[in-house]
Design goal:
mainly alpha
Length: 71
C-alpha cells in the first residue's frame, strides 16, 4: 500500500532514520510505513509529506488517480 514512500525518500536522499527524526518517530516505524505493515497516522501525514516532497493524499493513499473535471 505504501510502496511509494521508499522511492520518495530515496529521491530526497534521506535515510529512514533521517525521515524519522524529522517527523518525530523512530526508524522502525518509518520502515513499517514503507513496508505497508502500519498506516501513516493522519496527524503525521502533513510533516511526512513535506519531508518526502509528496502531497498528504499521496502519503496516505499512494498515487491517486486524477479525477477529470466534470463540465
Amino acid at each position: 500500500m505504501h510502496s511509494h514512500l521508499r522511492p520518495a525518500r530515496k529521491k530526497q536522499g534521506l535515510t529512514q532514520a533521517e525521515v524519522a527524526a524529522r517527523v518525530g518517530r523512530d526508524q522502525a516505524t518509518v520502515a513499517k510505513w514503507e513496508q505497508g505493515k502500519h498506516p501513516v497516522p493522519s496527524d503525521i501525514a502533513p510533516a511526512l509529506a513535506k519531508v518526502l516532497g509528496l502531497t498528504v493524499l499521496q502519503v496516505l493513499y499512494g498515487d491517486t488517480p486524477q479525477v477529470d473535471e466534470v463540465a
